[in-house]
Amino acid sequence: MAYGLLKGKRGIISGALDANSIAWKVAEKAHEEGATFVLTNAPIAMRMGEINKLAEQTNSSIIAADATNTDDLTNLFSQSQEVLGGKIDFVLHSIGMSVNIRKKIPYTESDYEYFMKGIDVSALSFHKMLAVAKKLDAINEWGSIVALTYMAAQRTFPFYTDMADIKAMLESIARSFGYHYGVEKKVRINTVSQSPTKTTAGSGIKGFGDFFDYANAIAPLGNASAEDCANYCITLFSDLTRMVTMQNLFHDGGFSNTGVSTEVMQKFGIE
Hints:
Order of helices and strands: EHEHHEHEHHEHEHHEH
CATH topology: Rossmann fold
CATH architecture: 3-Layer(aba) Sandwich
Mean pLDDT: 94
Distance between the termini: 42 Å
CATH class: Alpha Beta
Oligomer: single chain
Low-confidence stretches: none
């Protein structure tokens, strides 16, 4: 059921790779709620994914941009305003990559060049995106910017290796930039800390399947799906959350506040 929450709003959605990705679901929901938007991703990711199919489905334009390159981001925000016919109301940052994880390098043996690449792609890209948008005055007052994160930024999950540190930086950028953008332009910035989700990226992490089942057994409501996360992002893009900013918002079925569940205790024979 659609509610028209984003009717007349313009946006930029990054990171839609295929139908399993959260960004893909966000685009579908934003379209249903009446928004018009531009889809963007790095050129190499666009070649690997199915973004053209999504663009056709949502009647959207595609503008390629390397989120680590400020010239590309400047072009993205400038062209998006031209294509959409005005300033931007919402932005989704759904960008994450760890070379150390891809190459299965243990956290204590992290390759620092790979580490810095992960920081640039997954965290500094958010700062660059915000800085370019602010410099161009590309976001409308009361606009909303959301980045996707994970609670390994607060608690240790050994398999998440350097991405845990990188997500902590991402969340800090949301708070720090959120203050300045809020004071100057009333733009709000938040991060959404999602449950483990069976996306193409998430499924590539060693031991992901087992942890997905574990988290599902701990969370009182079970793991939140990509579609559920999309619904939550839509509320943050809408005018219903105009006073929410600089927050890290857990969207995980209650996992983050549950010490242990009865189901997990029973698996260990604890009555």
